[in-house]
């Protein structure tokens, strides 16, 4: 087996490393790696996996049979059923403005080909499910979990156990690489953090493939705002009763028999739909159109925005007053107007926290008008002011 002359020049900086060498590069070249999720973690991981030479076409030369040669391909698999959105571009570095609306797997593959045209890439633009997980992941040597939801994480983990494949898993939210992560839309995310964690996943994968990994079980935690930023936690030894790595007969059953969504506590709520849902008491809610009419008519109202201060500072209605949900719930009587005839309207981002705040005020039994704004500021942007920012 050999590399092309251009490959010696391309990969020479890593091949001269002690313990890496030509054999390390060859291992990368004919390795097959699958990345589940081409988002904040998957993009940087894919970028460095592809740049390192994983999944490139190899030319096998047989010295004794000079008239014969054959070609074998390593490969990189990209599994993601989502499409690129504008909000992804802050951190998902393989996508760009021109690929908004394109399947993420396809967009990421195009970007990788621009970095390394020799890559062999499987583009799988479908969701990983208990029914297809084994068949989709089985052809690869190593699996990277770059997803952002617990049900898929458990599914990938169980599938890796069943297939006996190494699994490299990462998660990120806010300024950190957490053990448990919510969605980026709910919690926020600093783009550079996903880059750090995705790069670490690529690094671990390369170490495994080249034989440089010490195989010691550790958990690495990262926080951009802490000093030091990294902490490494030694994992406990295996439990004999563990269905994943134990020594006893108890093993993971058929994956397609497990409801991973229910196992993780049910589906993630659609907060926007819940914020727009009809209340059992319509008198407790006000539509954005009615709020707009009241503001235009200069009616005296007490409009309270209960989002976090950081979000209020991003954008807000000029007529609103900021009082965080935690403040209001802690002392609701402090935030009613001194004039009993002035109604209080509560607004938030999507129309959910406002319902909690309004109920806390109504529990005071003051007989005052207290309503939450259906759909919150998202509904205001869609139905009243198209120039009002959505974040």
List its traits:
391 residues, alpha/beta, 5-stranded parallel beta sheet, 15 helices, 15 strands, 35% helix, thiosulfate-cyanide sulfurtransferase activity, ATP binding, Rhodanese-like_dom_sf
Strand content: 15-25%
Q: Which sequence of strands runs across the widest sheet?
A: 5-4-1-6-7
Distance between the termini: 52 Å
Cα Rg: 27 Å
Task: Please tell me about this protein's structure.
With 391 residues, this protein is an alpha/beta fold. The chain has helices at residues 5-15, 21-29, 42-52, 104-115, 133-137, 150-163, 184-187, 191-210, 260-263, 271-276, 288-296, 309-314, 325-330, 353-362, 376-383; strands spanning 32-36, 57-61, 69-73, 75-79, 121-124, 142-145, 167-169, 176-177, 218-223, 230-234, 285-286, 302-305, 321-322, 344-347, 370-373. The strands form four sheets. It has a five-stranded parallel β-sheet with strand order 5-4-1-6-7, with helices on both faces. Strand 2 and strand 3 (69-73) form a beta hairpin. Helix 3 (42-52) packs parallel to helix 4. It is elongated. The two termini are 52 Å apart. Residues 59-72 have low confidence and may be disordered.
